Amino acid sequence: MELSKKIKVGILSVVILLAAAGAATATMHAVTHESSFCASCHVMQNYMASWEHSSHREVAGCNDCHTDQRNYLAKTYSKATAGARHAFMNVIKPPEHLKMIESSKEVVQRNCLRCHDSLVEKTRLADQDAEADRKFCFDCHRSTPHGRERPTPP
Amino acid sequence: GKQPSSTLGPINTGLAPDEVDIQKFAVLFPHQYDSFMKNAEMSTIGTKYGGNLEKDSHLEKYPYLKTLFAGYAFSLEYNEDRGHVYTMRDLATVKRVTSLPNGKKQVGSCMTCKSAEVPGMIQKMGLDYYSTPVEEHLKNMNHGMSCSNCHDPQTMKLRVVQPAFIDAMKRRGEDVTKATQQQLRTYVCAQCHVEYYFNPTRQGEVTFPWDKGFTPDQMEQYYNEVAATENKFPQDWKHPLSGAPMLKAQHPEFETYQGSIHQINGVSCADCHMPYEKEGNQKISSHQWTSPLKQMQQSCSVCHREDMDTLRNYVISKQDLTFEMLNKAGSANEVAAKSIEKAIQAGATDADLTEARKLHRSAQWHWDIVAAENSMGFHNTPLTMNTLSKAIDLANQATMAAAKAGKFNDIPAATSYSDYINERLSTKGWPKDKGVKMPASDMSWK
Amino acid sequence: GKQPSSTLGPINTGLAPDEVDIQKFAVLFPHQYDSFMKNAEMSTIGTKYGGNLEKDSHLEKYPYLKTLFAGYAFSLEYNEDRGHVYTMRDLATVKRVTSLPNGKKQVGSCMTCKSAEVPGMIQKMGLDYYSTPVEEHLKNMNHGMSCSNCHDPQTMKLRVVQPAFIDAMKRRGEDVTKATQQQLRTYVCAQCHVEYYFNPTRQGEVTFPWDKGFTPDQMEQYYNEVAATENKFPQDWKHPLSGAPMLKAQHPEFETYQGSIHQINGVSCADCHMPYEKEGNQKISSHQWTSPLKQMQQSCSVCHREDMDTLRNYVISKQDLTFEMLNKAGSANEVAAKSIEKAIQAGATDADLTEARKLHRSAQWHWDIVAAENSMGFHNTPLTMNTLSKAIDLANQATMAAAKAGKFNDIPAATSYSDYINERLSTKGWPKDKGVKMPASDMSWK
Ligand SMILES: [Ca+2]
Ligand SMILES: [Ca+2]
After folding, report:
1. Which CATH class is domain A38-140?
2. Which residues form the signal peptide (chain A) (predicted)?
């Protein structure tokens, strides 16, 4: 990553934290709302690219799946903590291959259900909340929406 | 967190806790019931080694079985499995039950995996359930497999009821009544699709040989070191040609699956054999258990993106390689049995033959644990093939030991049945465009 | 959108079209060059059966090799492979080259996969290149493997230059000079990581036995039906114990890979063995070819989501099952050789032994095609295991045929080397926390 971008991101991460902590929460949400915001990071570009080719492109953006949508507070908290962590990691040393952390999985799973609950309402797919070996939607839907292969970003 | 409101949620069916009558469930869950009744459909379209075909005879397909099972009930009649609606019918009509020699009667233990009434009967009758003849039981029983084999009738939650399974897992240190839902999606099947024997010290109680582990070698060790001594179960039968104390393996799907690539990735039996399918705008779990190769769009394509014909061809190519080894192991076991017979005729004593018989028992066990498994190696190809290579080697060793004991060197020639077997395979249901579809058949047992 | 600046557009290096000197490339592509030079690093950390360890002796690890390769150069010295920077050094110092009996000189054909200079030499010398001794060639050659083995020096596009590969594929009807980029990501490796023989009718020209197909059975058929007759190549050597005309298999990575699950999914050698990695701020293809198990984050997690330790353990469990069969096949072949020897001593004639020798040749071929392959079954487990089961069965059949020919029944006992072999394995580089790391070693050959 070029230096100018590094600085931008550094500033951004500080802004995210401050904004969330302070009064500018609304502004933070506005900035981070678009999927293109996520893709402003180098390591996010693969995910942007695969999402852009998925059937979800028109119906769900990054935040629809990856941020906690239960209420405004949860949303703010999840954006702020995840945002700050990503920005931090991005400056230190972005890993070559990303994997969702456990708490992110819960968030995404809830979001799948947010949209598809009626489809699965006759099944027991949401019954396994607390179980360690629970199956997530994306354990079967392995290519939704990011495809299977995740080459390192160029 | 809070459950999204629209999922199935807690159910109260209002049924009795010990309800077994499938019709009572049918009214409440018509989709699953309809799906269940499709188990009557028979076809092999899309599958080379599996599918569902009425009484497709193993004895006819694999001619060497007559020698391998000589002197044992499995040489009377032994067929490819078919749908869950036929469990009672097939039990009631198979010659292994109806035509035992010398008026012998088949024991009740056989019912254990055929009807939803069994757990209740065991509760009532105790061990007498096992020793009562099948034909007695058949007269009194009105239900085959039903929803309650896997579901709690009141909540419809998955649960296991098979005493043999619960006990065997307990001996391994696992309390399966506390299993997670994900585990249960495999455990409900493991109630029946497993290797078993009838414990003579407990009136023939159905028992699973897992104390030392699930691999063919570990189960064999259990038979040799625990079942034979503690439970006085030295053998299933004595082979009339070789005089060896033999073991019979039965449908070890669950055991074979352990350690496979799908199992370590958390894939359950239900994921492949009960894929979600759409009924209107909702998903339900298919309750038509059959070869997933007949329905790969549902069973495989959510996880696998490759073209399903490519994947099917790959699976079949693995099965072909397994099949070739299986038949080699079968024919090598035939030679072993005949060689020991020859040694006996040449005057070898029991003492001379100890080694050869030990090898024969072990060789046929390793062949059978694959032959009796129903996926032609798919469920765990590396383990299956390793096992077959042992079967082949052990059978050859048995033959060599027999030659030594009988002091002969003109070892009986192995018969290659492959042309016959392949020919028969290609006329019954394969290739897939020729696959056989048959109408539903009689399910009654009275 | 705009191309990210780091991808390679059309390149004009300004180098000569036949440039072979790696230093000339180094200046232009320092990252790939640095990566290439890491091939000197030696370690087995993370891998049980592979890795890269200086002169790890196969003869010492598998004691039965002394019998199997008796009378042949491979019984002099035979080591685990190591990095591409050592090709010339290892060729120049191995006893198969330096210490042939009776002052025999190893032929130039051996250089073929060791240096970038070879294609140019063949162009200049014609078939004389192959018959000129290695030691002659070594004096004149200044380059080992280099970029030009796989890249066009002017454009850096992938291309193949090995005449044996181009010809063999042409005989199969494929023009590999027209191969796609994706194919080339495998074909560049297939120039060398393949089975070969030296054609006696063409001064020992390196030739690949693929006219009938890539499976062990198809290559064997080619050797028996084409090489033996048309090309007067009946054998690699005559086994001194059994008198059978033997075949030696060499590194059939490419052949084994055909039809595997990864191959049918379009995965190339480079995908696993040359994963993308970051060099500074650039993404490059790793040019450090070694066991991918040492770098699973790069090699596997691009496609596989499971935890890499779980995946590694699974891979090793498959390799363990393969390894067990491999050693059984090795020891069965030892018994076969000794049994035929015993029959000869007992007075069996060549005519009596025809069958036994045919079986011995075929048995050892099936063992060797796996033993010589470098992934311990990983590249194609089903095919590998099927092949080993044939090796075991054929070796046992050879033994029985020998017993018949020699009219004896006390067949030599098989030695189980497994304790020794496992013990040695666990002291050299495994388990992974004990893995051995060694400093780079000498690469020179003059
Ligand atoms: Ca049994
Ligand atoms: Ca060769």
Report:
1. mainly alpha
2. 1-26
